[in-house]
Amino acid sequence: MSKPLLEINNLRIRFTRDGKILTPVRSVSLRVSDGERVAIVGESGCGKSLTAMSITRLSPTDMAMVDGEILWRGQPLLGISQRELQKIRGRQISYVFQDPTASLNPVMRVYRQVTETMQGVDKAEKIRHTADILAKVGLPDPMRAALAYPCELSGGQQQRVMMSMALAANPELLVADEPTTALDVTTQKQVLDLMDRLADERGMALLLITHNLGLVAGRMERVYVMYAGEIVESGPVSEVLTSPRHPYTRGLLAAVPLLDAPPDRPLQDIPGTVPSPDAWPEGCVFAPRCPYADDHCRQCHPELRCGNNRECRCHKEIF
Amino acid sequence: MKLLQADHVSVTYRIPGRAPLKAVNGVSFELQPGDSLGIVGESGCGKSTLARAIMGLQPLSGGTLSYQGRNIADFNRQEAKEYRRKIQMIFQDAVGSLNPRMTVRQTLEETLRVHRMVKPDQIGHRIDELLDYVGLPGKVLGSYPREMSGGQCQRVSFARCLALTPQIILADEPVSALDVSVQARILNLIKELQRKLGVTIVLISHDLAVVRTICEKVSVMYAGEFVESGNTLQVLDHPRHDYTKHLLEAVPDVGRALRANGI
Ligand SMILES: Nc1ncnc2c1ncn2[C@@H]1O[C@H](COP(=O)(O)OP(=O)(O)OP(=O)(O)O)[C@@H](O)[C@H]1O
Ligand code: SF4
Ligand SMILES: [Mg+2]
Which residues fall inside 5 Å of ion ligand 3, going by CB? Predict the structure, then answer.
Protein backbone atom coordinates (compact mmCIF):
# COMPACT_ATOMS: atom_id res chain seq x y z
CA MET A 1 0.00 0.00 0.00
CA SER A 2 1.27 3.47 -0.83
CA LYS A 3 2.09 5.84 1.99
CA PRO A 4 -0.87 8.04 2.88
CA LEU A 5 -0.55 11.77 2.36
CA LEU A 6 -1.67 12.51 5.90
CA GLU A 7 -1.78 10.09 8.76
CA ILE A 8 -2.90 10.94 12.27
CA ASN A 9 -2.48 8.36 15.00
CA ASN A 10 -3.95 8.51 18.50
CA LEU A 11 -4.15 12.27 18.54
CA ARG A 12 -4.91 13.73 21.93
CA ILE A 13 -5.28 17.46 22.60
CA ARG A 14 -5.35 18.84 26.11
CA PHE A 15 -5.68 22.33 27.54
CA THR A 16 -5.26 23.59 31.06
CA ARG A 17 -7.97 25.96 32.15
CA ASP A 18 -8.33 27.26 35.72
CA GLY A 19 -5.99 24.56 36.92
CA LYS A 20 -8.16 21.84 35.39
CA ILE A 21 -7.19 19.71 32.45
CA LEU A 22 -9.63 19.55 29.53
CA THR A 23 -9.27 16.93 26.84
CA PRO A 24 -11.42 18.11 23.92
CA VAL A 25 -9.74 15.62 21.59
CA ARG A 26 -9.17 12.23 23.20
CA SER A 27 -8.38 9.80 20.47
CA VAL A 28 -8.37 10.53 16.78
CA SER A 29 -6.70 8.44 14.12
CA LEU A 30 -7.27 9.15 10.48
CA ARG A 31 -5.74 8.87 7.04
CA VAL A 32 -6.04 10.88 3.85
CA SER A 33 -4.50 9.48 0.67
CA ASP A 34 -3.33 11.40 -2.39
CA GLY A 35 -6.29 13.08 -4.07
CA GLU A 36 -8.78 11.53 -1.66
CA ARG A 37 -11.92 13.31 -0.40
CA VAL A 38 -12.41 12.71 3.27
CA ALA A 39 -14.96 14.21 5.65
CA ILE A 40 -15.11 14.56 9.41
CA VAL A 41 -18.69 14.93 10.66
CA GLY A 42 -20.04 15.50 14.10
CA GLU A 43 -21.98 17.97 16.16
CA SER A 44 -20.78 21.18 17.69
CA GLY A 45 -17.95 20.91 20.18
CA CYS A 46 -16.91 17.36 19.37
CA GLY A 47 -13.38 18.44 18.47
CA LYS A 48 -13.49 18.58 14.67
CA SER A 49 -11.88 22.00 14.33
CA LEU A 50 -9.20 21.35 16.93
CA THR A 51 -8.25 18.17 15.09
CA ALA A 52 -7.96 20.10 11.83
CA MET A 53 -5.98 22.95 13.35
CA SER A 54 -3.54 20.66 15.10
CA ILE A 55 -2.25 19.30 11.78
CA THR A 56 -0.13 22.39 11.24
CA ARG A 57 -0.40 23.61 14.84
CA LEU A 58 -2.68 26.56 14.14
CA SER A 59 -3.93 28.57 17.10
CA PRO A 60 -5.21 27.55 19.65
CA THR A 61 -3.56 24.16 19.29
CA ASP A 62 -0.12 25.81 19.44
CA MET A 63 -0.87 26.44 23.13
CA ALA A 64 -2.18 22.96 23.83
CA MET A 65 -0.57 19.72 24.90
CA VAL A 66 -0.76 17.60 21.80
CA ASP A 67 0.27 13.95 21.80
CA GLY A 68 0.08 11.16 19.31
CA GLU A 69 1.49 11.22 15.84
CA ILE A 70 0.85 13.41 12.82
CA LEU A 71 2.65 12.27 9.68
CA TRP A 72 2.78 14.27 6.47
CA ARG A 73 4.04 12.03 3.67
CA GLY A 74 5.59 9.97 6.44
CA GLN A 75 7.35 12.96 8.02
CA PRO A 76 6.40 13.61 11.66
CA LEU A 77 4.97 17.11 12.15
CA LEU A 78 4.46 17.17 15.89
CA GLY A 79 8.09 17.61 16.88
CA ILE A 80 9.24 20.01 14.17
CA SER A 81 9.87 23.74 14.58
CA GLN A 82 7.40 26.45 13.63
CA ARG A 83 9.85 27.48 10.91
CA GLU A 84 9.78 24.09 9.27
CA LEU A 85 6.02 23.96 9.66
CA GLN A 86 5.79 27.27 7.87
CA LYS A 87 7.15 25.59 4.75
CA ILE A 88 4.29 23.12 4.78
CA ARG A 89 1.50 25.36 5.98
CA GLY A 90 -0.09 27.28 3.13
CA ARG A 91 2.09 25.57 0.52
CA GLN A 92 1.42 21.87 0.88
CA ILE A 93 -1.48 22.07 3.31
CA SER A 94 -3.95 24.97 3.02
CA TYR A 95 -7.01 25.90 5.02
CA VAL A 96 -10.37 27.52 4.36
CA PHE A 97 -12.53 28.42 7.35
CA GLN A 98 -16.20 29.03 7.96
CA ASP A 99 -16.15 32.76 8.37
CA PRO A 100 -14.34 34.62 5.60
CA THR A 101 -14.98 37.96 7.32
CA ALA A 102 -12.91 36.80 10.29
CA SER A 103 -9.98 35.79 8.10
CA LEU A 104 -9.95 38.82 5.81
CA ASN A 105 -8.65 42.19 6.98
CA PRO A 106 -11.54 44.63 6.58
CA VAL A 107 -9.37 47.72 5.98
CA MET A 108 -7.06 46.21 3.37
CA ARG A 109 -7.95 45.92 -0.29
CA VAL A 110 -8.21 42.33 -1.50
CA TYR A 111 -5.12 42.40 -3.74
CA ARG A 112 -2.89 43.51 -0.87
CA GLN A 113 -4.04 40.57 1.25
CA VAL A 114 -3.65 38.06 -1.55
CA THR A 115 -0.12 39.26 -2.35
CA GLU A 116 0.96 39.93 1.20
CA THR A 117 3.93 37.60 0.99
CA MET A 118 5.07 38.70 -2.48
CA GLN A 119 8.15 40.87 -2.38
CA GLY A 120 9.84 43.16 -4.89
CA VAL A 121 6.74 43.36 -7.03
CA ASP A 122 5.00 46.61 -7.92
CA LYS A 123 1.37 47.43 -7.30
CA ALA A 124 0.19 46.93 -10.87
CA GLU A 125 1.76 43.48 -10.95
CA LYS A 126 0.17 42.58 -7.62
CA ILE A 127 -3.24 43.61 -8.88
CA ARG A 128 -2.79 41.64 -12.09
CA HIS A 129 -1.62 38.57 -10.19
CA THR A 130 -4.63 38.77 -7.84
CA ALA A 131 -7.09 39.22 -10.68
CA ASP A 132 -5.53 36.15 -12.30
CA ILE A 133 -6.02 33.85 -9.37
CA LEU A 134 -9.48 35.27 -8.65
CA ALA A 135 -10.43 34.51 -12.25
CA LYS A 136 -9.38 30.91 -11.64
CA VAL A 137 -11.98 30.52 -8.89
CA GLY A 138 -14.61 31.88 -11.24
CA LEU A 139 -15.13 35.24 -9.58
CA PRO A 140 -16.91 37.52 -12.03
CA ASP A 141 -15.13 40.82 -12.67
CA PRO A 142 -11.85 39.77 -10.97
CA MET A 143 -10.21 43.16 -11.52
CA ARG A 144 -12.90 44.94 -9.53
CA ALA A 145 -12.78 42.29 -6.80
CA ALA A 146 -8.99 42.60 -6.54
CA LEU A 147 -9.34 46.31 -5.82
CA ALA A 148 -12.33 45.96 -3.50
CA TYR A 149 -12.42 46.02 0.28
CA PRO A 150 -13.81 42.76 1.72
CA CYS A 151 -17.08 44.40 2.82
CA GLU A 152 -17.79 45.32 -0.79
CA LEU A 153 -17.99 41.63 -1.66
CA SER A 154 -20.79 39.22 -0.80
CA GLY A 155 -20.21 36.29 1.55
CA GLY A 156 -19.87 33.87 -1.35
CA GLN A 157 -17.40 36.16 -3.12
CA GLN A 158 -15.35 36.55 0.06
CA GLN A 159 -15.27 32.79 0.43
CA ARG A 160 -13.95 32.50 -3.12
CA VAL A 161 -11.24 35.01 -2.34
CA MET A 162 -10.26 32.86 0.64
CA MET A 163 -10.28 29.80 -1.53
CA SER A 164 -8.15 31.44 -4.19
CA MET A 165 -5.61 32.35 -1.51
CA ALA A 166 -5.65 28.84 -0.14
CA LEU A 167 -5.18 27.37 -3.58
CA ALA A 168 -2.61 29.84 -4.89
CA ALA A 169 0.32 27.63 -3.90
CA ASN A 170 -1.16 24.47 -5.38
CA PRO A 171 -1.43 22.61 -2.08
CA GLU A 172 -1.65 18.85 -1.96
CA LEU A 173 -4.27 18.96 0.77
CA LEU A 174 -7.04 21.48 1.35
CA VAL A 175 -8.54 21.43 4.82
CA ALA A 176 -11.95 23.08 4.64
CA ASP A 177 -13.58 23.68 8.04
CA GLU A 178 -17.31 24.34 7.52
CA PRO A 179 -16.42 26.46 4.50
CA THR A 180 -19.99 27.14 3.46
CA THR A 181 -21.95 27.05 6.70
CA ALA A 182 -22.49 30.82 6.66
CA LEU A 183 -23.67 30.84 3.04
CA ASP A 184 -27.05 30.43 1.38
CA VAL A 185 -27.69 27.05 -0.19
CA THR A 186 -27.35 28.25 -3.76
CA THR A 187 -24.07 30.04 -2.99
CA GLN A 188 -22.93 27.04 -0.97
CA LYS A 189 -23.45 24.84 -3.98
CA GLN A 190 -21.42 27.17 -6.21
CA VAL A 191 -18.52 27.33 -3.77
CA LEU A 192 -18.48 23.56 -3.20
CA ASP A 193 -18.78 22.81 -6.92
CA LEU A 194 -15.79 25.05 -7.41
CA MET A 195 -13.84 23.29 -4.69
CA ASP A 196 -14.72 19.92 -6.23
CA ARG A 197 -13.68 20.99 -9.70
CA LEU A 198 -10.36 22.40 -8.56
CA ALA A 199 -9.65 19.30 -6.50
CA ASP A 200 -10.35 17.19 -9.57
CA GLU A 201 -8.20 19.25 -11.89
CA ARG A 202 -5.24 19.32 -9.57
CA GLY A 203 -5.56 15.94 -7.94
CA MET A 204 -5.68 17.75 -4.61
CA ALA A 205 -6.91 15.89 -1.53
CA LEU A 206 -9.75 17.35 0.55
CA LEU A 207 -10.41 17.11 4.25
CA LEU A 208 -13.87 18.58 4.76
CA ILE A 209 -15.09 19.30 8.26
CA THR A 210 -18.83 19.64 8.48
CA HIS A 211 -21.92 18.90 10.51
CA ASN A 212 -23.96 18.52 7.33
CA LEU A 213 -24.46 14.89 6.32
CA GLY A 214 -25.91 15.99 3.00
CA LEU A 215 -22.59 17.49 1.94
CA VAL A 216 -20.81 14.30 2.92
CA ALA A 217 -23.29 12.14 1.04
CA GLY A 218 -23.02 14.09 -2.17
CA ARG A 219 -19.35 14.90 -2.40
CA MET A 220 -17.06 12.83 -0.22
CA GLU A 221 -15.50 9.38 -0.51
CA ARG A 222 -14.73 8.46 3.05
CA VAL A 223 -16.11 9.76 6.32
CA TYR A 224 -15.05 9.85 9.94
CA VAL A 225 -17.84 10.37 12.45
CA MET A 226 -16.64 12.16 15.56
CA TYR A 227 -18.34 12.33 18.92
CA ALA A 228 -17.03 13.88 22.13
CA GLY A 229 -13.39 13.96 21.08
CA GLU A 230 -13.18 10.54 19.48
CA ILE A 231 -13.73 8.89 16.15
CA VAL A 232 -16.69 6.59 16.70
CA GLU A 233 -17.16 5.31 13.17
CA SER A 234 -15.49 5.53 9.79
CA GLY A 235 -15.64 4.02 6.35
CA PRO A 236 -16.66 4.66 2.76
CA VAL A 237 -19.49 7.22 2.60
CA SER A 238 -21.66 4.86 0.59
CA GLU A 239 -21.51 2.28 3.39
CA VAL A 240 -21.50 4.41 6.52
CA LEU A 241 -24.51 6.48 5.50
CA THR A 242 -26.57 3.59 4.22
CA SER A 243 -25.71 1.03 6.87
CA PRO A 244 -24.44 2.97 9.88
CA ARG A 245 -23.09 0.78 12.67
CA HIS A 246 -22.57 3.12 15.58
CA PRO A 247 -25.71 4.19 17.43
CA TYR A 248 -24.56 7.82 17.21
CA THR A 249 -24.28 7.71 13.42
CA ARG A 250 -27.69 6.08 13.25
CA GLY A 251 -29.10 8.71 15.56
CA LEU A 252 -27.72 11.53 13.43
CA LEU A 253 -29.20 10.08 10.27
CA ALA A 254 -32.61 9.58 11.87
CA ALA A 255 -32.65 13.18 13.10
CA VAL A 256 -32.09 14.84 9.73
CA PRO A 257 -35.21 16.19 8.06
CA LEU A 258 -35.34 14.85 4.50
CA LEU A 259 -36.75 16.39 1.36
CA ASP A 260 -38.45 13.25 0.19
CA ALA A 261 -39.48 11.55 3.40
CA PRO A 262 -43.10 10.50 3.83
CA PRO A 263 -44.82 13.47 5.49
CA ASP A 264 -45.55 11.51 8.66
CA ARG A 265 -41.96 10.30 9.17
CA PRO A 266 -41.18 11.14 12.78
CA LEU A 267 -37.87 12.84 13.42
CA GLN A 268 -35.87 10.94 15.96
CA ASP A 269 -34.00 13.11 18.39
CA ILE A 270 -31.02 12.00 20.42
CA PRO A 271 -31.87 12.69 24.06
CA GLY A 272 -29.46 14.74 26.13
CA THR A 273 -26.49 16.74 24.92
CA VAL A 274 -22.82 16.31 24.11
CA PRO A 275 -20.93 16.10 27.42
CA SER A 276 -18.43 18.84 28.16
CA PRO A 277 -14.70 18.16 27.63
CA ASP A 278 -13.91 18.51 31.32
CA ALA A 279 -16.38 15.79 32.22
CA TRP A 280 -16.26 12.94 29.73
CA PRO A 281 -18.22 10.07 31.18
CA GLU A 282 -16.38 6.92 32.09
CA GLY A 283 -16.95 3.99 29.80
CA CYS A 284 -18.51 4.71 26.43
CA VAL A 285 -18.84 8.48 25.92
CA PHE A 286 -22.12 8.01 24.10
CA ALA A 287 -23.67 5.85 26.81
CA PRO A 288 -25.69 8.65 28.50
CA ARG A 289 -27.53 9.19 25.20
CA CYS A 290 -27.49 5.72 23.75
CA PRO A 291 -30.68 3.64 23.62
CA TYR A 292 -28.65 0.40 23.80
CA ALA A 293 -26.42 1.34 26.74
CA ASP A 294 -26.02 -1.19 29.55
CA ASP A 295 -23.78 -1.43 32.61
CA HIS A 296 -20.88 -2.80 30.62
CA CYS A 297 -21.08 0.23 28.27
CA ARG A 298 -21.14 2.61 31.21
CA GLN A 299 -18.08 1.08 32.84
CA CYS A 300 -15.86 0.06 30.01
CA HIS A 301 -14.58 2.34 27.28
CA PRO A 302 -14.96 0.62 23.88
CA GLU A 303 -11.99 0.38 21.52
CA LEU A 304 -12.23 1.22 17.86
CA ARG A 305 -12.69 -2.06 16.01
CA CYS A 306 -11.65 -2.34 12.39
CA GLY A 307 -12.46 -4.62 9.52
CA ASN A 308 -13.22 -4.33 5.80
CA ASN A 309 -12.36 -0.64 5.55
CA ARG A 310 -14.72 0.21 8.35
CA GLU A 311 -14.21 1.13 11.97
CA CYS A 312 -16.69 1.32 14.83
CA ARG A 313 -16.30 2.09 18.52
CA CYS A 314 -19.13 0.19 20.19
CA HIS A 315 -19.39 -2.85 22.41
CA LYS A 316 -22.43 -4.25 20.73
CA GLU A 317 -22.88 -5.93 17.44
CA ILE A 318 -26.41 -4.69 16.99
CA PHE A 319 -25.97 -4.47 13.28
CA MET B 1 -63.15 34.44 10.06
CA LYS B 2 -59.57 34.61 8.96
CA LEU B 3 -57.12 34.90 11.80
CA LEU B 4 -54.51 36.84 9.93
CA GLN B 5 -54.58 38.15 6.40
CA ALA B 6 -51.82 39.89 4.48
CA ASP B 7 -53.05 41.67 1.40
CA HIS B 8 -50.36 42.95 -0.97
CA VAL B 9 -48.07 43.90 1.87
CA SER B 10 -45.04 45.99 0.92
CA VAL B 11 -42.24 47.42 3.00
CA THR B 12 -39.83 49.95 1.57
CA TYR B 13 -36.66 51.07 3.31
CA ARG B 14 -35.68 54.64 2.58
CA ILE B 15 -32.07 55.49 3.22
CA PRO B 16 -31.14 59.11 2.50
CA GLY B 17 -28.97 59.41 -0.59
CA ARG B 18 -29.89 55.97 -1.92
CA ALA B 19 -32.60 54.52 -4.07
CA PRO B 20 -35.51 53.22 -1.95
CA LEU B 21 -35.25 49.48 -1.29
CA LYS B 22 -38.41 47.41 -1.64
CA ALA B 23 -37.63 44.71 0.90
CA VAL B 24 -41.13 43.21 0.77
CA ASN B 25 -43.14 43.63 -2.38
CA GLY B 26 -46.84 42.86 -2.65
CA VAL B 27 -46.96 39.76 -0.44
CA SER B 28 -50.33 38.13 0.27
CA PHE B 29 -51.33 35.16 2.42
CA GLU B 30 -53.99 34.16 4.90
CA LEU B 31 -53.93 32.08 8.04
CA GLN B 32 -56.77 30.18 9.68
CA PRO B 33 -56.51 28.99 13.28
CA GLY B 34 -54.23 25.94 13.43
CA ASP B 35 -52.55 26.61 10.08
CA SER B 36 -48.84 26.20 9.59
CA LEU B 37 -47.14 28.31 6.98
CA GLY B 38 -43.48 28.10 6.04
CA ILE B 39 -41.75 31.04 4.42
CA VAL B 40 -38.54 29.98 2.69
CA GLY B 41 -35.91 31.98 0.89
CA GLU B 42 -32.28 32.97 1.00
CA SER B 43 -30.62 35.69 3.02
CA GLY B 44 -31.67 39.17 2.06
CA CYS B 45 -34.89 38.07 0.38
CA GLY B 46 -37.01 39.96 2.90
CA LYS B 47 -38.12 37.18 5.27
CA SER B 48 -37.21 38.94 8.47
CA THR B 49 -38.61 42.27 7.32
CA LEU B 50 -41.88 40.51 6.60
CA ALA B 51 -41.77 38.97 10.07
CA ARG B 52 -41.32 42.38 11.67
CA ALA B 53 -44.20 43.73 9.61
CA ILE B 54 -46.44 40.88 10.77
CA MET B 55 -45.48 41.66 14.37
CA GLY B 56 -46.61 45.24 13.80
CA LEU B 57 -43.07 46.49 14.35
CA GLN B 58 -42.48 47.72 10.81
CA PRO B 59 -44.75 50.25 9.07
CA LEU B 60 -46.06 49.10 5.69
CA SER B 61 -45.49 51.16 2.58
CA GLY B 62 -48.38 49.42 0.88
CA GLY B 63 -51.13 46.85 1.41
CA THR B 64 -52.82 45.83 4.65
CA LEU B 65 -52.42 43.31 7.43
CA SER B 66 -55.64 42.35 9.14
CA TYR B 67 -56.13 40.40 12.31
CA GLN B 68 -59.59 38.87 12.72
CA GLY B 69 -60.88 41.10 9.97
CA ARG B 70 -59.48 44.39 11.29
CA ASN B 71 -56.55 46.33 9.85
CA ILE B 72 -53.82 46.26 12.49
CA ALA B 73 -52.85 49.81 11.53
CA ASP B 74 -56.22 50.95 12.95
CA PHE B 75 -55.71 49.38 16.38
CA ASN B 76 -55.81 51.65 19.40
CA ARG B 77 -53.18 51.23 22.11
CA GLN B 78 -55.09 48.60 24.02
CA GLU B 79 -55.79 46.58 20.89
CA ALA B 80 -52.20 46.88 19.70
CA LYS B 81 -51.04 45.57 23.06
CA GLU B 82 -53.45 42.67 22.89
CA TYR B 83 -52.31 41.88 19.33
CA ARG B 84 -48.70 41.81 20.41
CA ARG B 85 -49.60 39.26 23.03
CA LYS B 86 -51.59 37.07 20.63
CA ILE B 87 -48.72 36.84 18.22
CA GLN B 88 -45.38 35.82 19.66
CA MET B 89 -42.01 35.54 18.10
CA ILE B 90 -39.19 33.00 18.52
CA PHE B 91 -35.71 33.93 17.36
CA GLN B 92 -32.71 32.05 16.04
CA ASP B 93 -30.44 33.21 18.85
CA ALA B 94 -32.26 31.61 21.76
CA VAL B 95 -29.55 32.29 24.32
CA GLY B 96 -29.35 35.96 23.34
CA SER B 97 -33.13 36.40 23.44
CA LEU B 98 -33.25 35.49 27.15
CA ASN B 99 -32.25 37.86 29.92
CA PRO B 100 -28.81 36.64 31.06
CA ARG B 101 -29.40 37.81 34.64
CA MET B 102 -32.61 35.90 35.16
CA THR B 103 -33.09 32.26 35.97
CA VAL B 104 -35.64 30.28 34.02
CA ARG B 105 -38.07 30.59 36.91
CA GLN B 106 -37.64 34.38 37.07
CA THR B 107 -38.10 34.72 33.32
CA LEU B 108 -41.33 32.75 33.31
CA GLU B 109 -42.64 34.36 36.52
CA GLU B 110 -42.02 37.82 35.19
CA THR B 111 -43.80 37.10 31.93
CA LEU B 112 -46.82 35.68 33.73
CA ARG B 113 -46.92 38.52 36.24
CA VAL B 114 -46.40 41.50 33.93
CA HIS B 115 -49.13 40.32 31.60
CA ARG B 116 -51.36 39.14 34.49
CA MET B 117 -51.82 35.80 32.79
CA VAL B 118 -52.81 33.91 35.95
CA LYS B 119 -53.64 34.67 39.57
CA PRO B 120 -50.49 35.05 41.70
CA ASP B 121 -51.16 31.82 43.59
CA GLN B 122 -51.42 29.95 40.30
CA ILE B 123 -48.01 31.01 38.97
CA GLY B 124 -46.09 27.99 40.26
CA HIS B 125 -48.62 25.59 38.86
CA ARG B 126 -48.62 27.32 35.47
CA ILE B 127 -44.81 27.23 35.32
CA ASP B 128 -44.85 23.48 35.87
CA GLU B 129 -47.39 23.15 33.08
CA LEU B 130 -45.27 25.25 30.71
CA LEU B 131 -42.13 23.21 31.42
CA ASP B 132 -44.14 20.13 30.72
CA TYR B 133 -45.30 21.46 27.34
CA VAL B 134 -41.76 22.09 26.20
CA GLY B 135 -40.32 18.97 27.80
CA LEU B 136 -37.92 20.55 30.27
CA PRO B 137 -37.23 19.02 33.70
CA GLY B 138 -38.07 21.10 36.78
CA LYS B 139 -34.42 21.28 37.77
CA VAL B 140 -33.67 23.84 35.01
CA LEU B 141 -35.77 26.43 36.84
CA GLY B 142 -32.79 27.63 38.84
CA SER B 143 -30.49 27.87 35.81
CA TYR B 144 -29.29 30.97 33.99
CA PRO B 145 -29.21 31.00 30.18
CA ARG B 146 -25.42 30.60 30.04
CA GLU B 147 -25.69 27.42 32.07
CA MET B 148 -27.95 25.78 29.52
CA SER B 149 -27.43 24.39 26.03
CA GLY B 150 -28.76 26.15 22.93
CA GLY B 151 -31.57 23.62 22.64
CA GLN B 152 -32.61 24.10 26.25
CA CYS B 153 -32.61 27.88 25.84
CA GLN B 154 -34.77 27.54 22.74
CA ARG B 155 -37.25 25.50 24.78
CA VAL B 156 -37.28 28.14 27.47
CA SER B 157 -38.13 30.73 24.80
CA PHE B 158 -40.98 28.51 23.69
CA ALA B 159 -42.19 28.21 27.28
CA ARG B 160 -42.04 31.97 27.71
CA CYS B 161 -43.93 32.45 24.49
CA LEU B 162 -46.60 29.89 25.49
CA ALA B 163 -47.00 31.63 28.83
CA LEU B 164 -48.83 34.36 26.94
CA THR B 165 -51.24 31.86 25.30
CA PRO B 166 -50.55 33.18 21.81
CA GLN B 167 -52.72 32.31 18.84
CA ILE B 168 -49.86 32.65 16.43
CA ILE B 169 -46.20 31.75 16.90
CA LEU B 170 -43.85 33.36 14.45
CA ALA B 171 -40.54 31.51 14.50
CA ASP B 172 -37.61 33.06 12.62
CA GLU B 173 -35.00 30.35 11.94
CA PRO B 174 -35.66 28.72 15.34
CA VAL B 175 -33.43 25.70 14.75
CA SER B 176 -30.70 26.86 12.40
CA ALA B 177 -28.22 27.44 15.22
CA LEU B 178 -28.80 24.00 16.73
CA ASP B 179 -27.20 20.63 16.17
CA VAL B 180 -29.35 18.15 14.24
CA SER B 181 -30.04 15.93 17.22
CA VAL B 182 -31.33 18.95 19.16
CA GLN B 183 -33.01 20.47 16.12
CA ALA B 184 -35.12 17.32 15.79
CA ARG B 185 -36.32 17.78 19.36
CA ILE B 186 -37.41 21.40 18.78
CA LEU B 187 -39.13 20.49 15.51
CA ASN B 188 -41.01 17.69 17.25
CA LEU B 189 -41.94 20.17 19.97
CA ILE B 190 -43.39 22.61 17.43
CA LYS B 191 -45.43 19.80 15.86
CA GLU B 192 -46.73 18.78 19.24
CA LEU B 193 -47.73 22.31 20.22
CA GLN B 194 -49.63 22.53 16.99
CA ARG B 195 -51.41 19.29 17.68
CA LYS B 196 -52.08 19.79 21.40
CA LEU B 197 -52.82 23.51 21.54
CA GLY B 198 -53.90 24.26 17.99
CA VAL B 199 -51.49 27.20 17.73
CA THR B 200 -50.94 28.72 14.32
CA ILE B 201 -47.34 28.53 13.21
CA VAL B 202 -45.44 30.75 10.83
CA LEU B 203 -41.99 29.30 10.32
CA ILE B 204 -39.35 31.34 8.57
CA SER B 205 -36.47 29.24 7.38
CA HIS B 206 -33.92 28.77 4.67
CA ASP B 207 -34.11 25.02 5.18
CA LEU B 208 -36.64 23.43 2.85
CA ALA B 209 -36.54 20.05 4.55
CA VAL B 210 -37.33 21.64 7.92
CA VAL B 211 -40.32 23.43 6.45
CA ARG B 212 -41.46 20.24 4.78
CA THR B 213 -41.43 18.53 8.17
CA ILE B 214 -43.48 21.15 9.98
CA CYS B 215 -45.65 23.17 7.62
CA GLU B 216 -48.71 22.32 5.60
CA LYS B 217 -48.38 25.39 3.44
CA VAL B 218 -45.31 27.08 2.05
CA SER B 219 -44.44 30.32 0.30
CA VAL B 220 -41.15 30.71 -1.52
CA MET B 221 -39.78 34.22 -1.26
CA TYR B 222 -37.34 35.78 -3.67
CA ALA B 223 -36.28 39.44 -3.81
CA GLY B 224 -39.18 40.59 -1.67
CA GLU B 225 -41.88 38.64 -3.48
CA PHE B 226 -43.66 35.34 -3.00
CA VAL B 227 -42.79 33.57 -6.24
CA GLU B 228 -44.64 30.34 -5.44
CA SER B 229 -47.13 29.35 -2.74
CA GLY B 230 -49.23 26.33 -1.99
CA ASN B 231 -49.46 23.02 -0.21
CA THR B 232 -45.94 22.17 0.98
CA LEU B 233 -45.73 18.69 -0.49
CA GLN B 234 -47.16 19.91 -3.76
CA VAL B 235 -44.74 22.84 -4.05
CA LEU B 236 -41.61 21.00 -2.92
CA ASP B 237 -42.29 17.75 -4.74
CA HIS B 238 -43.56 19.40 -7.92
CA PRO B 239 -42.09 22.90 -8.01
CA ARG B 240 -43.32 25.14 -10.81
CA HIS B 241 -41.32 28.32 -10.44
CA ASP B 242 -37.73 28.28 -11.68
CA TYR B 243 -36.43 29.78 -8.46
CA THR B 244 -38.08 27.04 -6.37
CA LYS B 245 -36.46 24.45 -8.63
CA HIS B 246 -33.11 26.18 -8.39
CA LEU B 247 -33.36 26.30 -4.60
CA LEU B 248 -34.36 22.66 -4.33
CA GLU B 249 -31.50 21.59 -6.55
CA ALA B 250 -28.98 23.36 -4.35
CA VAL B 251 -30.10 21.66 -1.13
CA PRO B 252 -27.57 19.04 -0.04
CA ASP B 253 -30.12 16.43 0.97
CA VAL B 254 -28.73 13.16 2.31
CA GLY B 255 -31.31 10.86 0.77
CA ARG B 256 -31.20 12.50 -2.61
CA ALA B 257 -27.42 12.73 -2.72
CA LEU B 258 -27.02 9.04 -1.97
CA ARG B 259 -29.50 8.14 -4.65
CA ALA B 260 -27.93 10.49 -7.19
CA ASN B 261 -24.65 8.67 -6.66
CA GLY B 262 -26.33 5.36 -7.28
CA ILE B 263 -26.07 4.30 -3.66
N1 LIG C 1 -8.35 27.21 23.40
C2 LIG C 1 -9.16 26.32 23.99
N3 LIG C 1 -9.03 26.06 25.31
C4 LIG C 1 -9.84 25.18 25.90
N5 LIG C 1 -10.84 24.50 25.29
C6 LIG C 1 -11.04 24.72 23.98
C7 LIG C 1 -10.20 25.63 23.25
N8 LIG C 1 -10.64 25.65 21.97
C9 LIG C 1 -11.67 24.79 21.90
N10 LIG C 1 -11.92 24.22 23.10
C11 LIG C 1 -12.97 23.23 23.42
O12 LIG C 1 -12.73 22.06 22.68
C13 LIG C 1 -13.94 21.44 22.28
C14 LIG C 1 -13.88 21.11 20.79
O15 LIG C 1 -13.78 22.30 20.05
P16 LIG C 1 -13.80 22.33 18.47
O17 LIG C 1 -13.73 23.75 18.07
O18 LIG C 1 -12.77 21.41 17.92
O19 LIG C 1 -15.25 21.74 18.14
P20 LIG C 1 -15.96 21.50 16.72
O21 LIG C 1 -16.23 20.05 16.64
O22 LIG C 1 -15.17 22.12 15.65
O23 LIG C 1 -17.35 22.24 16.94
P24 LIG C 1 -18.22 23.21 15.94
O25 LIG C 1 -19.03 22.28 15.12
O26 LIG C 1 -19.04 23.99 16.91
O27 LIG C 1 -17.25 24.03 15.17
C28 LIG C 1 -15.05 22.42 22.67
O29 LIG C 1 -15.68 21.95 23.84
C30 LIG C 1 -14.33 23.71 22.95
O31 LIG C 1 -15.02 24.46 23.92
S1 SF4 D 1 -20.83 0.94 23.49
FE2 SF4 D 1 -22.86 0.75 24.38
S3 SF4 D 1 -23.38 2.85 24.96
FE4 SF4 D 1 -21.66 2.97 23.57
S5 SF4 D 1 -22.57 3.25 21.60
FE6 SF4 D 1 -22.27 1.06 21.81
S7 SF4 D 1 -24.19 0.33 22.67
FE8 SF4 D 1 -24.20 2.53 22.93
MG1 LIG E 1 -15.58 23.83 14.31
Answer: A 49
